[in-house]
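Re: flavin-adenine dinucleotide structure - here you go.
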Amino acid sequence: MFHHDSPEEAAFRTEVRTWLEANLPATLRGRTNRPPPAELMPWYRMLSRKGWIAPHWPKEHGGMGASLNEQIVMTEELARVGAPQLPAQGLNHIGPILIEFGTEAQKAKHLPPIIAGDVIWAQGYSEPGAGSDLASLATRATLDGDRFVVGGQKIWTTWGHHSDWMFALARTDPQAQPRQAGISFLLLDLHSPGVRVRPIRTIAGDDEFAEVFFDDVAVPAQNLVGKLNDGWRIANALLGHERLGTSNPQFALIALERIKTMARASGVMADPAFRDRLAAASINVTALLALFNHAVELTNRQRGLGPDSSIIKIFGSELLQSLNDLLIEAAGSEASMENPVPTAFGAVDVSTSFLQVRRATIYGGSSEIQRNIIARRVLNLPQ
Ligand SMILES: Cc1cc2nc3c(=O)[nH]c(=O)nc-3n(C[C@H](O)[C@H](O)[C@H](O)COP(=O)(O)OP(=O)(O)OC[C@H]3O[C@@H](n4cnc5c(N)ncnc54)[C@H](O)[C@@H]3O)c2cc1C
């Protein structure tokens, strides 16, 4: 949108577009909810075999080592064909964290299966009594010789019931003050004895997340990432990646395409007042793209994002919700239907889509918490 492709980028765009058109199954295009693993993982593995599953990872770890512009080309082209949302915990969260903080043994064991799509990861941060106030988490890991013994519960674990491994925060020093100083970052095999997982259904009707219970689960000491009681620093580095990843403009671009297709199908596009709102929405999506590109560039240059990730999280998630409000307008009388509305861009499930994006201002830290961070760290307001 801001950038004219160089001849090499234009050739790459053509290659990506042609390949996606030929290979992305029609049943996976324009899906509102994330498809279950049996449908989604074959597609993940196809992208992996093509070498395109991790554009942002360095080549030495199996990524594409793509330039910023190549990453943008991928994002735009995936949005163009309505590609489904991939599981992010491995590719966007624990992968980059292990590249930065992991031991050589941890990298060798865990990175290749993420790239190949052989192992699915879950994030074990939130607990029933610890969401926004994450530092009050109560899951304990007690060091006993060469292993930790883990007890407690996690909740809202995305794909917890489909996952093989979890990166989890656990309290390793209950007496430490401040509380953040007693937390460690562990890699936990979810197939271990003592792990119990129960799926939770969302208002959008998908089994997107789960509760995970630990009953004296043995975790080898070498599964500690970073130093003992230094998990908070790693947890926050990961949240920066998460806030950036959840604001990926791919979802806003897909939403914009859906609105246009739906408005043409319903006839609402003929209304000049609607077209004004559509123009405003397009400008906001362009602004998100600019913000995201800037953030990716800072990340690629190893410059920490800091509170920038909170600004982009608020803008990206609230924009996604306002786009879905516009989708309802675009659908006109079809909006109230529970069944997907067929359009040239695939079937659009307007009401599910509206419900689905409610979560965007909650996960990765709610909008209120992001505003608190900006108030404290950018504006220096009193607490
Ligand atoms: C779809 C989805 C997927 C998720 N996936 C995962 C996952 O994979 N792994 C994981 O660990 N967690 C996950 N989460 C959990 C998510 O991180 C938490 O829901 C989030 O951090 C909020 O915590 P909470 O739900 O406990 O709400 P609470 O912390 O109880 O907050 C309730 C309300 O109070 C507000 N509030 C709380 N404290 C303050 C304050 N100090 N100032 C102003 N307002 C405040 C909040 O903004 C919110 O509106 C997921 C959540 C969703 C919705």
